[in-house]
Amino acid sequence: MPPKKKTKKTTKKAPEKCENDVEAKYKHSILDIAVLQDHIAIQRESAIKIQSDRADLRRRMRDMEQKLQHEGQDHRDVNSDLRRQYKSMQTDLSSKVKRLEKEVGQLKEELVLCQDELKREKREREQVEQEKDTVISDLCHKMDNMETDYEKILHETLDCLTSQLSVAGQEWKGKSTELHQNHKDLLSEFGLNAANI
Q1: 146-153 contact pairs (CB < 8 A, 24+)
Q2: Average pLDDT over residues 173-183
Q3: Does pLDDT of 86 surpass 50?
């Protein structure tokens, strides 16, 4: 018996659905990668800003130290009151320098954290890419297997159909020979020659 048309339609829909799933997963992976790249760009900008702020703080600290040295040289001969003021100012500046050094330390810690997070994001992105490549490879392998299976089923169906057609042809040939013979017999009963008709 020949295969039903409904079976052929179902067979064609399965690869299309699989292709749509692969395409959707591929688009989803591309979106994930774009989000990760944006996140990395933001982290990179933050790290650059932190480094710039750190360099500015160091420059300001050097400038202040130079200012202190110049003021010390310019005011050596000043009376004790000015020296007291200078010491007071030096104390203030020292505390400011300490505060700035503390801020620099905090910024360094933040920079280390940002660098660690950037490394983690890179590792996660690489892992996502590896998983994506694995999934794509698996899907390609499955598609190849499905194609081989469908080809095998098609060949088997065609072979079965060919053998059924051959059997049906032999049956019809036998029946037509029998029918021709019956007609010849009937014509000969009426005295007619089948070859002349």
Answers
A1: 146/14, 146/15, 146/18, 150/11, 150/15, 153/11
A2: 82
A3: yes
